[in-house]
Amino acid sequence: TDKLKEHFRSKIEPYNKKVKDFVAQYGDQKMGDYTISQVYQGMRGITGLVYETSKLDPEEGIRFRGYTIPELQAKLPKYPGGKQPLPEGLFYLLLMDELPDDDAVRRMSNNWVRRAQVPPHVFKVIDSLPQHAHPMTQFIAGITALRTESEFQKAYRQGIGKKDYWDPVYEDAMNLIARLPRVAAYIYRRTYRSGDHIEPDPRLDYSANFAHMLGFDNPEFYELMRLYLTIHADHEGGNVSAHAIRLVGSALSDPYLAFAAGMAGLAGPLHGLANQEVIRWVLDMKKELGGGLPTKEEIAEYVKKTLTEGKVVPGFGHAVLRKTDPRYMAQREFALEYMPHDPMFLLISRIYEVVPGILEATGKVKNPWPNVDAHSGQLLMYYGLVEYDFYTVLFGVSRALGTMASLIWDRALGFPIERPGSTTTDLLMKKFAKE
Ligand code: CMX
User: Keyword DNA repair, does the record have it (predicted)?
Assistant: First the structure.
C-alpha cells in the first residue's frame, strides 16, 4: 500500500468539513468590489480562486503553505551535507500541509522511483518531432503521450463516483511528477547531445537523478537543482500555468491534459519562457557591446534601446509582486556562495543595479524589480547547461510539484467546473456610458 496516499486520505474528510462549515456560515459575505478597468486588465487584483498550496504577497513574495523560501531552506530536510531543501519535502508539505521529516522525504523519493518508468512510445513521439523543435514543443508532446497511462481517464470511463475522483488524480499526478525528469532529460540529450541518453540512477534523490540524466554529475549542480526545483514549484493560483492547469482540470480532463495546458502557458515569453529570453537578451547585449563586462552606462543605453524598440526587458516586472522576487534573492545568494566572480553573475548583478531605475522612470511599469527568471539562467550557464532554449522545461518540471498537489486538492474538495462570466464592450457601454 501507498502510505503517503493513506496519509493524504486521512486529511480529506476533516478539511472538507472545515471548508463546508465555513462556506455555510460565511458564504454570502462580500469579498470586494472591482472596476471596469480591472476587467479590461486581465482581472488584475480580483481574487477569484481558492488555491491552497501557496500564496503570493506583493511585498514579501511567495509563501508555500505559510513558509517563505528562507524558512523552507531552514526547515525542510536536506541531502546529507547539503544546504538546499529537497523538493520531495516541498511536495510533501504542499500536499499534506505539514512539514515532513527525513523519513517522509525518503518515502516520497522511493515512491517516485517506483513510478518513474516512462513507456517507450513517449520517446517515439518525441523522436518523431524535428530535432530543432523547441524543447517546450517536445515537452508538451511528451506529456500528452504519457496520457495513455491515465488512471483517472480509465476510472472515469468505469463510472467512478465524484467523491473518489481524487484517488486516480493522485495516481496520475504522482506518476507524472515521477516521469517528468526522464522525459525532460530525454529531450535535452536528443536535442543537444546527439541522442546520447543517460539511464536514471534510482539511488539518487529526485533532483540529483534529474541532473545526472541531463549529464551534469557535479555535487554543486545537484544542490542547484534542489534549490531550482523547490523555488519554481508554485506561485499561488492565478498565474498563467497554475490557472490553466486548474481550469482545464476542472473540466475533469485528466492531470496529463491539464498539465500540458499549463505548460503551453508556461511557454509564453511573458511567463516561464522569460528565463530563456533573459539569457538571449544578455548575450545579445554582450555581442553588441563587444565582450567584457559592460559599464552601467552601456547597460542603461541598451535597456533604453530595448524599450524604444517596444520590447519588454525580460526578467523584470511582475503582475503581483512589488519588490525584488525572493526567488531571485535565493538564486543570488547561491551565486554569491558558489561563483561570486563569475563574469555572467557580475553582469546580472550590474543589470540589477541599472534596470529598476529606468523602468521606474517610464512611469508605467508597476514593478521595476527583477523576478525569478532574471537569475536562473546565469546559474545554469555557469555549470555548462548553456542551451537556454531548454530552460523553460526545467521550470516546467518544478511547476508540476505545486500544481499537481493543488489539483489533487481540487478534486478532493469537489471543486466544480470553472466558468466565470464575460460580457461585451457594447453591453458595458449601454450600462455605464448612458449620457
Ligand atoms: N519591460 C518593459 N515594459 C514593462 C515591463 C518590462 N519588464 N514590465 C511591465 N512593462 C510595461 C507593460 O508592458 C505595460 O505596458 P503598456 O501599458 O504599454 O502595455 C506597463 O508596463 C504596465 O504593466 P504592469 O502592470 O507593470 O505589468 P503586467 O502586470 O501587465 O505584466 C509582466 C507583468 C511580468 C508580464 C511584465 O512585467 C513583463 O512583461 N515582464 C517581462 C517579462 C517577464 O520577465 N516575465 C516573467 C514573469 C515571471 C514568470 O511568470 O515567470
Answer: no
Q: What is the pLDDT of residue 312?
A: 98
46 domain-assigned: no
361 close to ligand 1 (CB < 6 Angstrom): no
Name the residue type at position 22: F
**Residue among 282, 303, 308, 365 whose CB has most ligand 1 atoms within 8 A, to mutate:** 365
The yes-or-no answer on residue 271 being catalytic is yes
Q: Are residues 186 and 118 in the same domain?
A: yes
Residue 232 annotated in active site: no
Q: What is the mean pLDDT of each run of 10 residues along the chain (435 residues)?
A: 97 98 98 97 97 97 98 97 97 98 97 98 98 98 98 98 98 98 98 98 97 98 98 98 98 98 98 98 94 93 98 98 98 98 98 98 98 98 98 98 98 98 97 87
314 and 400 share a domain? no
The b/e string for 153-162 (b: 16+ C-beta within 10 A; e otherwise) is bebeeeeeee
Q: Are residues 291 and 257 in the same domain?
A: no
> Is residue 302 included in any domain, yes or no?
yes
235 & 309 share domain: no
Both 300 and 263 in a single domain? no
pTM above 0.90, yes or no: yes
* Ligand 1 contacts CB of residue 177 (under 6 A): no
Rounded to the nearest angstrom, the distance between the alpha carbon of 305 and the centre of ligand 1 is: 16
Q: Which residues 6+ apart lie within 8 Å of 34 measured at CB? A: 45, 46
At 136 the pLDDT is 98
C-alpha cell at 104: 517522509
Concerning whether 373 is annotated as a catalytic residue, the answer is yes
261 and 232 in a common domain:
yes
Q: In terms of Cα–Cα distance, which of 251, 267, 235 is closest to 54?
A: 235
Q: Which residues span the domain enclosing 165?
A: 102-270+390-412
Instruction: State the complex-level ipTM.
Output: 0.99
Residue 314 Cβ inside 6 Å of ligand 1? The answer reads yes
- What is the tally of structural domains in the chain? 2
- Which run of H or of E encompasses 356? helix 343-361
Note the pLDDT of residue 296.
97
Contact residues for 228 (Cβ-Cβ < 8 A; gap 6+)? 207, 376, 379, 394, 398
Side-chain half-sphere exposure of 160, counting CA atoms within 13 A: 17
Residue 372 has, within 13 A of its CA and on its CB side, a CA count of 23
Assess if residue 266 is contained within a domain.
Answer: yes
The CATH number of the domain where 127 resides is what?
1.10.580.10
